[in-house]
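User: Hey, my collaborator sent me this sequence without any context and asked if I could get a structure. I don't really work with proteins. Can you help?
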Amino acid sequence: MSFAFDYDLLRELTEARGVSGYEDRVRGLVRRELSETTDHVETDAMGNVVATIEGDADYSVAVAAHMDEIGFMVRHVTEDGFVQVDPLGGFDARVLRAQRVTVHGEEDLTGVIGSVPPHTLTDEQRERNDEVSDLFIDLGRGGEEVSELVSVGDLVTLDQTTTILGDCITGKALDDRVCVFAMIEAARRIEEPDVTIHFAATVQEEVGLRGAHALGVDIDPDLAIALDVTVANDVPQIGKEADAVTELGAGTAIKLKDSSVITSPKVHSRLTSVAETEGIEHQHEVLPAGGTDTAGFQRSNGAKPVGAISIPTRYLHTVTETANADDIAGTIDLLTAFLESETGEHDYTL
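Assistant: No problem. I've predicted the 3D structure and written it out in structure-token form, which is a compact way to encode the shape of the chain:
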């Protein structure tokens, strides 16, 4: 299948490992790519990457997408060599059993999250809700060897490759590497903007929008646009169309609200107008639960106009996150067109 974007880079970004607070491997890729297309690149004390294209106007726009993925930190190693973990980000523990992981100890070690065979489950075990604290990782090694290779504080990531699935792309960490990728693609296309654009790859979004909050103060933009995935529950188990939030293949999503932010009406109206003018297929997103970096910029250094563009994605926070290729391309197109048409003269105040 041919794509209107650099699929190899998207695969590289999504397959890289980088849990909240430890985004080093992803940060290296982002710096490599953005240093080729922007005027200068900086990294702050938290690990946020900010790559800037200088414009002529005394007006700045921040575009943010987060680098971190959900993962774990080792909290205990048993005498028998089983590893217990603490979550970094929001997991549904039901989907974790029998998954393959990588424990980043003295070396990268393949492990599996253990699952008791259904043949031997007690009635109590069948009825109990899974918790991350109940999980254990089996490294296939004895206790003495594991204790030499794994320590409290080591990181654990879910193990999955990225691949093409019909008209879609599926893998781990599309949340939010697919949006980091969209931001990089837009930076490649924009050459001489009227306004200064800060392309921000943020850290620790999955544990509380922490990187974006810091950047809202440090770069203090006049306008902020965040990029993230959003829920696409357009699957048989969801009974009502309204509960689907967005639909794969129906276009990029312009966010109206989530549980952390109500986007600025004049910003999402202009995003919609740009999409209509450019003939970019789009849909509007009302997300009942979940937050994004949008909220990190809205009020961290005084009130700021904010908007958000989302990529509809099925099976969020699993290793099979799935997005439609045309929706990804549309997101890149809308972000690029919006930034190229931003003059600093639009009045977003209410």
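In plain terms: Residues 174-189 form the longest helix (16 residues). You can pass these tokens on to your collaborator as they are.
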